[in-house]
Amino acid sequence: MKRVLLIVSGGIAAYKALELVRLLTKAGYGVTSVLTQAGAQFVTPLSLQALTGNKVYTELFSLTDESEMGHIELSRSADLVVVAPASADILAKMAAGLAGDLASTLLLATDKRVLVAPAMNVRMWEHAATQANMALLQTRGVLVVPPDAGPMACGEFGPGRLAEPPVILAAIEAALGVGGPLTGKHAIVTSGPTHEPIDPVRYIANRSSGKQGHAIAAALAALGARVTLVSGPVEIGDPAGVQTVHVETAAQMLAAVEAALPADIAVCAAAVGDWRVADEAPHKMKKDGGVPPALHLMENPDILARLSAPGPQRPKLVVGFAAETERLEEYAAAKRARKGCDWIVANNVGGTGIMGGEENEVLLLSADGARAWPKAGKIEVAAKLAAKIGEFFA
Length: 394
Ligand code: C5P
Known about the structure:
This protein is α/β, with parallel strands linked by helices. It has 2 domains: 3-175, Rossmann fold; 186-392, CoaB-like (Rossmann fold), CATH 3.40.50.10300. It is 34% helix and 25% strand. It has helices at 14-26, 45-52, 63-68, 71-76, 88-96, 102-109, 122-126, 128-139, 165-175, 211-222, 250-260, 303-308, 328-339, 378-392, and strands at 3-8, 30-35, 56-57, 80-86, 114-118, 143-144, 148-151, 157-161, 186-191, 196-199, 202-204, 226-231, 243-246, 265-268, 275-277, 297-299, 317-324, 343-348, 359-360, 362-366, 369-372, 376-377. A hairpin with a 2-residue loop joins strand 20 (362-366) and strand 21. Helix 5 (88-96) packs across helix 8 (128-139). Bound molecules: cytidine-5'-monophosphate (C5P). Cytidine-5'-monophosphate binds at residues 190, 250, 268-270, 272, 300, 302-304, 320-322, 335. Residues 190, 250, 268-270, 272, 300, 302-304, 320-322, 335 line the site of cytidine-5'-monophosphate.
């Protein structure tokens, strides 16, 4: 029997943890639960105990708890640690590595995969601190079931509501390798910018951070796919559970992508430099007060177009991105036709600090037409895209 250690932290959504426990036990999982002090304000240890059939742990320094089962043992006996709902506070503790109570100590001491389902007020979720914590946790391999958007208990509207328990259950099953919708599928994801050298110390680059592509790689892996992430130079870490290949130039990115084939899915989220310097200088170029040098550029290979070209190696689903600043749908549709890919995720990068930022506002274009998605964090956009890809293969 697979065992889940469920940490219930504070928030009005804590009551939904009881429904999650019911679904988990019904599906045959063993559940041990830990209730944070704030969590215990919303659900009682007794109700959790009744539903799990197991003792509920609440205090780090309780002698009885420690003598029965220390915090190391608690997570050692689990196959997966789940935090649902995960409050802004516990996510911040996880990101900072704090260990002041039983829940945070367990999360710091565990050697098991951790899945979090955040729930909080929309402003707390959208706060740069929470988004930065989430991005950091994802690079450490923490799996995320993003919150839903909708009317909230606090009277506001937006993302922050705990994902529905069946959605969390599906993510838990995928994390445990039990039938994620993309199990057995290989996905190649390109991410980040490219650096095209001018001479040994200078290069042409762009503002891409790799946040969207990396989040997509993590989201596909969370649904069970084997993922090869081909990343240009970025400042964020490699997502855990994903094989990351680091490259600098477009030519290297194409070579790494071709080496990773065959694949069932390709998502080209990289901002590949359109041009490279044709006559890269072997030594650092010197200024001598004369005429400034002119760069001779030549076009780079189009990785997305190559992947989309018909042939035995073509992935079944090829997804491209289109960053535009105007006439989004029209340009994206033209790009889809020109490149030959199946879907285009079009994003408006005009003026709002989207490129390099934490959020994205996209339009998904497929043979069925265009669908606008509400502006959301890059992690949520990634989860939604991965879920759509999961449906495609269902
Ligand atoms: O042509 P444009 O750069 O606007 O197309 C964007 C899409 O094409 C993105 O999916 C990007 O990853 C991909 N692309 C590529 N290789 C290039 C240029 C763009 O894969 N050389």
